Amino acid sequence: MFSDWPSELVPQQGWGDEAAISAFKDAIPWTVGRDFVAGTAKHLAGSLGLTKPGPPIKSKIVHDKQLQVLMPALGHGLSFPLSEIDILRDCVSVYCEWLSALLPNPKSSVPGPILSDPNHYARIIINHFYYLFVPRGAQGPDVINRQAVLCHRVLRTLQNIAQNSPCLSEDTWQTLLLFLLHINSALLSPPTIKVPDESEGAPSSTLSLNFTGDVPEDAGEQLCERVLSVLFETWLLACARCFPPPPLWNALRESCQRWRHRVGLIDQWNRINFALTRKLIGFMYGPSFPEITISAEDDLNIIPTNMSRDCIAQVWYRILHIIGNPVDLSRHTVISKTPAFLKYAISSALVIEPSQHPCLQMLPSIFLSAMKGVSGLVDAFLGVPNTSLDNLNQKGRQISPSSSFSLSAECRGEDAARLLANGRPKCNSILHLFGPWLFEAALINCNLQASPGPQHKSDVGSNAGSGSRRPVSVFAGEGSRKSSDSSAPGDSHADRLANLTPQHFQSGRAEALGALCRIFCSKKTGEEILPVYLARFYIALHQGLRQSDPSVSASHHESGHSSSSRSHGIRNGICSETAASILVNGVDLFRLDLQGVVSLVPSVLGVLECVLPEGELNAPSHLPVTLLRRAATHVLLSILPLPLHFQGLQVKEVGSNSGERLALSHLRPQLVNLLTSALQVETDPANTQMLLGGLLFCVQDAALCEVMDSISQHNFSTDRDHNIMSSDSAHALFVRAIYLVCHRLISSWKSDVNVSLAGLELLSGLARLSIAEQDGLECKRAVKWLCDYIAYQCSRPPRAHSKDLHSTIVAAFHCASVWLVAHPYLLQDKECLATVLEVVELGISGSKSQVKSSDAPRLKHEKELKPASMRVRDSAEALLSCVLSQVGTFPSVCGAESLSSLLDEMTLLRHCNTWGGSDQLTRDTAAQHFRYFVAQNSIMLALLEQPLGNHQDPQPTVTALIRGPFGRVAWTMQLRHLPRHKSSAKLYTVNPGRPLPTNDVGIKHNVKPKYFPESVERIPLCKADKSIPTLESVIMNDEKSALEHDKLLQILDHQIAFEESVRRQVERETSEYPDVETECVAPPLCLEFQTARLLLSHFGFLSLDALQESVESAVPSLVALDSSMAGFARDLDVLDTTNNRTVDTAHIFYVRAGQSAPQDIMSNVVSSSSVHPHFLEFLNGLGWTVNVYQHPGWTGLTSTAFTVTSPPYDGTGPVDVNHGGSGFSGRSHVLYWSDALSEIAFVVPSPTFGQPSPGHQPSSTNNINTVGFVLDQCDRVGGGGTGGGSGSERSDSLPPYDGDVETGSSISSHTSQISYGHGNENKNRKFGRQTSAMSCNDHKVFLVWLESFDDCYTFPANELLCETVTGLESSSWKDKEANVYIIYIHALTNGLFRIKLQGQNAKLNMAGPLVDGQVVSRRVLGTLVRQTALNMCRRRRLESDSYQPPHVRRKLRIQEMVQKYRYEMNEPEFYTHLFTSPLC
After folding, report:
1. How far apart are CA 1296 and CA 1446, in angstroms?
2. Rounded to whole angstroms, how far apart are CA atoms 111 and 1099?
3. Are 96 and 154 in contact (CB under 8 A)?
4. Euclidean distance between CA atoms 734 and 747, whole angstroms
5. Three-class SS of residue 1383?
6. Whole-angstrom Cα distance, residue 1193 to residue 1236?
7. Paired strand residues for 1397
8. What is the DSSP string of 382-436?
């Protein structure tokens, strides 16, 4: 930069007013001169008032000639030996006081001539001060300390003058700067006079020096930091006030290059660079750009406030290059090529060559410090938060804050801080500036055979880092010299300096490699990096990933093998510093669109095989093993999809001279084995969860790939067939994954809740896979292991039971349900069925009836009901219900959209024979025709005694709508005396005809019966007989009795006459036999039955015990409900809309590059031309399309969920084929997916354009029609209905319309707040466990497709919350910070997809199978995103203390209705009620 300018650093012998002082010394003898100087200095110092009390005495020096005599004497005194410390002190005191003439308020003791011309005399004084700093040779520590005290005082005085003097001239500034340069040269240029020894136990890559006490310490080492800080701080002041000319800059550059063997120089260089960079970045990128953190208060003010921006930029660039090429610090022969080192070598008998000086042993630590400084500047320009000078002092720092953030397991929440600034410069710009240094440092001691390119000059001014020149060759620059300056192992200098082998510079090399990785990983979407930089970067990484042993490297280079495990010469369990730095700082290398990065896969794979499968890893001491393994896991997850994605791609390993190429598909078995081996030895929970996500991806990707290959009728590889016997086939991976995960779950993961949940999520994902030739035995073993896991967790001691433990048990029950539904044939196995039912019994009751097969089973009434917790019992009940009702029957004929029957009261009543259809049918009217009973306080029976129209057979018929905790079913039952197949043959004729006459009718005897013996009248009466008065006597005495007697006689007469007429008629009819007018007519059939009573009686509900309250329950086993009460029908609707599955909603957004406005983001999905070609394919992979007005399940909005409504516009047609996702906005269609346990709707919010918003659609009772009214279309899934639905974390209930209904208990608090207004009656009544699902409703799941990955940091999640209202939120959800979980999807140009997860920090939020930073293939994208969204919501429910499962909420709804609408009747009244019509 200044090589064409002469340096102003004159030889030291001509500095310091040497002529005047020499004349003084030569004029008088030494002793006389000493006494004269001592007396003069003492006299002048005494008049200053420093040693005696009182004010200073005014100076009597009034002429310049007096000063011309005194000042040479004082200057001569400053050159005295340190034994004359008193004279030195007096001379320093006098000169320091006289320099106050340059200050606004000079001291009174300053002579008048100096006050008249302060700059002239100040220059003379400054020149004289030089002699104070000249080293006096070998001195004791005490003497050196005295000299240091005086030097510090002078430096303070000069620094004070530079800062506060208003009258410094340009000459004085230059004199001051030259003085500082000369004293630094005098002190720092000579080699350090102390002997360093390598400390015991210190790592080989870091030098720790011990100094022997018998070797004196030199003054330069003691004053190094101080003189350098004053030099640089004063230089900055001069730049702001009197900018130094080029010769001075050249002098500074040359001087600093002679001081590079001093540790303090690099420390001060870093300090000044950081301070200047902080100012530079502040005005270049604005206040929003992350600034460098400077903790020291002095360093904050080191840059003058009046320095202009142009001046700051100029000074920053010049200071940055002031020490030359920092990589020269790794070459001791270059550092020792100075006159001072040569002089020492000539004068010393121990040192033959300058490069053999012991002080050069400090070069490794100095080189590391310089590379840390450059790396810190790189971080500052990248916008890495918390970049500070303090980080440079950390031992072995090769991890920037950005890397530590990205690898942190707790980096969730708004995902911690932004890792890189959005307005950061391009990679090329940073590489133009720092690339030559970093590339050269990264290639230290690398034997590269390449064509020579332009060599960089040692002068930094000719470096390509100037920004105007760009490298034109891959190997251009110092890297091509590859440390020819004696870095080779065979060099004689290196043999004599054992501590300066290339291995000792690996820490600095690792720092440079880490900085390069961070630069290239900061690449923005669509940013182009020069190919020359990419090529040099790949070569540097390849060399850094190789074993650092030169012999290993040389032998490999000659052999040219491409096997990744052998080619890198890496021993298992040992990872070099360079490889560790690359892994930790380069986790994003395979997640970016870097051209040709796949050529590094073999090199990286060799290092991964060293790091991941080893339980005992020997990592660099400064780097935690867990962090290193996490970085390796991130890299592994990034390259997992490459073999199947680039099936036929042949790659050539970087640095290989042979023409051999390696097919990426051949690396897949190696990757799979590496993944499973790492999972076996990993102990860190976060790393284990990441590996589990990668394992599930491998299995799913292989399964789908095989399916696609079978469809396209070709194999994915040309040289091998995919079959179930290959080690990386889907079947083999399926079996290995089941065995590995189940084994680890029971053996070592059972105590960690997050790992257990991740393992169970993986098993659930495996259960849903469709794999050819699936082994039923493996599936049975998986279910058996799950049951054993549940049994073990339940059997743990009471002190181990906690919320987290029970969460794992609940998740295990859910996983078992998934397996049984997906593989119903497992229940055909008696052993498997028994195992499942045993664990269900354990979950419900807390113990097994038969612990061992030899034990006698305990009956139900003999056991104490003591489950592990209510959550465990509820999950066991859910599994039992799933086994009984869903396994083997899901999906039903109605489809997967509804588990419950689509029939309700209105539908059934419309199809009864007695329904005329003339009146408007409402829910209230329909409910009047049913009898409602509740059995066991949990099952509601709605009984209809009217036969349906499609049943013409006159049998006693009852239709039952059974509403229970697990849904609603409809049954029609008939009372038959014969089986149905025999009932069709009638055993009687329609007209049996007249019977044949029978003549032998016998003899009829008319006998009058006698009721008393004949002698009764002859018995005389006694007084007792006469005690009862006769009827006549009573009648005669009482007129009322006489009237009643007359009435009785009339009745008797009427009855006698009637009986007589009947008798005569009978006699007439029987007088002649047969009677020709009499026909044999069959009796009429009975059409009136009490079928409800018969049903309840046959099921044993009408016993007296069932109708009475028991000790265990205050509610009888059977109670009747009054359906005529107000609000009954609406509460029935609430029950029907309380779903029996969990429901979730995910909202999808498409973000084009650079967008951050909500309206712009939603407008992207209007047209297919404005979205990525794979976006619609991704949407279709999430679920299937349903019409919200004909869909019986969850739609993402309460106003259209679980009901059939009339659309406010023509929204029943198909989705527009040209939409970009807006067709799934929820206005007419959504994407939907469900299984037997959960439902999820995917909604793509879009602008309205005149149509009503989904969140503002009208909802009233007029448009609520249950799906069952179209019985002729019962096979259609989308027929609508009240299938049910509240949901998952969306919970409590889903009211189908808004109304004003009085709801009572707090169980319905959610419903009351959303749609039913107020409820005063029974509002303080509580039933069951009083919890609410409100805390699970207010979180959101966003799926965001990014065209530019950096837009994830500016995505307006909070502004888009208003577009994601589902109707399930609490009333205060907008007032508090919403929990938003975001899955970002970024499409790479190579066809793969990068995933980023963002969410609130929570204990159970690391849901899989997707992992933050993972790269997935197009085949499995939709499936994995859906599973991750579901698992996020499921973990949120597990974490919530107030969440209630769907069947528990339905049960509580039924109990609430019992309390509100129960008939208060005793047993006789209940039986009487059974014989009355429901309409009476």
Report:
1. 17
2. 123
3. yes
4. 20
5. strand
6. 12
7. 1383
8. HT-TT-BGGGGGSTT----HHHHHHT-TT--TT-SS-SS-TTPPPHHHHHHHHHH
- State how far the Cα of 70 lies from the Cα of 448, in Å rounded to an integer: 66
Helix-, strand-, coil-residue percentages of the chain, each rounded to 5: 50, 5, 45
Q: Which residue has the tokens 């293939």?
A: 1417
Per-residue model confidence as pLDDT tens digits over 119-175: 999 999 999 999 888 887 766 777 788 888 999 999 999 999 999 998 899 999 999
**Of 1289, 1351, 967, the residue nearest 1153 (C-alpha):** 1351
Confirm if 1381 and 1431 have CB atoms less than 8 A apart: no
Cα pseudo-dihedral 284, 287, 292, 294, rounded to 10: 120
The helix (H) or strand (E) run that includes residue 723 is none
DSSP assigned state of 308: -
Collapsing DSSP states into helix, strand and coil, what is residue 851?
A: coil
3-state SS, one letter per residue, for 927-983: HHCCEEEEECCCEEEEEECCCECCCCCCCCEEEEEEEECCEEEEEEEECCCCCHHHH
Poorest-pLDDT segment among 181-185, 362-366, 465-469, 1396-1400: 465-469
Q: What is the largest CA-CA distance in the chain?
A: 191
Tokens 């008193």 sit on residue? 86
Stretch (H or E) spanning 990: none
Side chain identity at residue 831, one-letter code? E
pTM score? 0.81
- Name, of 168-182, 1193-1207, 1241-1255, the range with top average pLDDT: 168-182
**CA 457 → CA 161, 460, 476, 477, 786, distances in Å?**
39, 7, 11, 8, 68
What is the three-class DSSP state of 1233?
A: strand
Tell me how far the alpha carbon of residue 514 is from its chain's centroid: 25
- Helix locations, 657-802, DSSP H: 668-681, 685-712, 730-744, 753-767, 776-794
Q: Residue 745 carries which DSSP code?
A: I
State CA 607 to chain mean position distance. 27
DSSP secondary structure string for all residues of 597-638: GGGGHHHHHHHHHHHSS-SS-B--TTS-HHHHHHHHHHHHHH
Alpha helices in 414-546 (DSSP H): 427-442, 492-496, 506-521, 531-545
Q: What would you report as the CA-atom Rg of the chain, rounded to the nearest whole angstrom?
A: 48
The SS3 of residue 1050 is: helix
**Sequence-ordered list of residues with C-beta below 8 angstroms from that of 869, at least 6 positions apart, any chain:** 801, 806
